[in-house]
Design goal:
The protein is an alpha/beta fold. The chain is built from 16 helices and 14 strands. The structure holds D-xylulose and cobalt (II) ion.
């Protein structure tokens, strides 16, 4: 069945176009730094925001007009699969991402849920084989169901722990069936409300145990996966265990999980953590752990996870510098963990919003390439650290110095000459390169 029957395949029409249903910057085959845009920007559509979100907020009911909803939950689930593949083909996006709960109704038991998942994911597989559309990642939603009130792998209740493990196992089975390359662990309710009743060490150890079981299961069924932790500092919990990149990396290092894990960095989560997006990407990259991106943006005036479509070219430019310096995202991609605003309630707004996000990333890509090709920021940094090009600096970098030699040098310094950063010029020149 067709759900977007008044919409044709979205085309690149260039800057002069006033067509809301056309790309003005994203030109899939255009070569940037030796590769077509679509290879740099492996976009993915988020199933939950695109096909499940009804536009409701804590103050009011849903506003979204969607023609795939029926009285029968399994029919609706099948319609959503059809809508997903039609949407992706018309948009020219090759990947999608989903939670188990997004795609099939839970029914009355875990058993019924798994049965429903089998039916729907078999249907997805048929459509994937026909269209060539691929799964970027899937995940197990271990936060929405009321049983996860006290957490999932961090729950004080071992029955809940087991149910969460069963959902992860099923998710890995589905990933194998659909040829997924990544599996995401976003913490959900893995965190705590108050230390008065919580043993952080006990809970984190249990989470690490689950991850090790997931690795072992993949080995057993011979499915090669990269697991991705998605850091977020708060919401729904007051304290989320995977606060930010640095915290997640410390956890992975502590439990010896780095070989199988990378990070999925979300822009809005970086904002909530009090960081910039590029900071989170940079920290992940420094540990060789930049796996994938959840592309959205927050609203600094609101301060919660608004999951807006990315429209800020400055931010996407700085983010894509990190991606290019990483040599790309490899098996990862750029998933729009973004939802249309409640006021954009028409079904075609799903296209309009994705086009806006893709155009914003395309502009960011071109600007990032310009900045890297001119060597502008590299030169700023080279100049800033140039004192380490001295004989003493070289000795330090070769680990040839000790405190005594450095003390002798320090005593010989007559005057310290620090350089001005001229940072206002750097920012102004960066504007020239971006816009
Ligand atoms: C929640 C969030 C999730 C993850 C997947 O803030 O970002 O949708 O991306 O569970
Ligand atoms: Co996300």
């Amino acid at each position: 069945m067709e759900f977007f029957n008044n919409i044709e395949k979205i085309k690149y029409e260039g800057l002069e176009s006033n067509n809301m249903l056309a790309f003005r910057h994203y030109n899939a085959e255009e070569i940037v730094m030796g590769k077509p845009m679509k290879e740099h920007l492996k976009f993915a559509v988020a199933y939950w925001h695109t096909f499940c979100n009804d536009g409701s907020d804590p103050f009011g009911k849903g506003t979204n007009q969607r023609n795939w909803i029926t009285e029968d939950p399994m029919q609706t689930a099948k319609n959503k699969v059809d809508a997903n593949f039609e949407f992706l083909q018309k948009l020219g996006v090759e990947y999608f991402c989903f939670h188990d709960m997004d795609v099939a109704p839970f029914g009355n038991s875990l058993e019924e849920f798994f049965h429903n998942l089998d039916i729907i994911t078999d249907y997805m597989k048929e459509k994937m084989d026909k269209t060539g559309i691929k799964l970027l990642w899937n995940t197990a939603d271990r936060h929405a169901n009321h049983i996860y009130v006290n957490g999932a792998a961090s729950s004080p209740n071992i029955d809940v722990y087991a149910m969460s493990a069963a959902q992860v196992k099923k998710g890995i089975d589905i990933s194998k069936k659909l040829g997924g390359k990544n599996f995401v662990f976003w913490g959900g309710r893995e965190g705590y409300e108050t230390l008065l009743n919580t043993d952080i060490q006990f809970e984190e150890e249990n989470i690490a145990r689950l991850y090790k079981m997931a690795i072992a299961y993949c080995e057993k069924i011979n499915h090669k996966l990269t697991f991705l932790i998605e850091p977020k500092p708060k919401e729904p919990m007051t304290h989320q265990y995977d606060f930010d990149s640095a915290t997640a990396l410390a956890f992975l290092l502590k439990y010896d999980l780095m070989e199988h894990f990378k990070l999925n960095i979300e822009a809005n989560h970086a904002t909530l953590a009090g960081h910039t997006f590029e900071h989170e990407l940079n920290v992940a990259r420094n540990y060789n752990a930049l796996g994938s991106i959840d592309a959205n943006q927050g609203d600094p005036l609101l301060g919660w996870d608004t999951d807006e479509f990315p429209t800020n070219v400055y931010d996407t430019t700085l983010a894509l510098i990190e991606v290019l310096k990483n040599g790309g995202l490899h098996d990862g991609g750029i998933n729009f963990d973004s939802k249309v605003r409640r006021t954009s309630f028409e079904q075609e707004d799903l296209f309009i919003a994705h086009i806006a996000g893709m155009d914003t990333y395309a502009r960011g890509l071109k600007a990032a390439a310009r900045i890297i090709e001119t060597g502008f920021l590299d030169n700023v940094k080279k100049d800033r650290y140039s004192s380490y090009d001295s004989e003493l600096g070289k000795q330090l970098l070769n680990n040839e110095l000790d405190l005594e030699v450095l003390t002798n040098h320090a005593l010989s310094v007559k005057e310290v000459n620090n350089k001005s950063s001229h940072i206002e010029f750097v920012k102004s020149k960066l504007n020239d390169l971006i816009y």
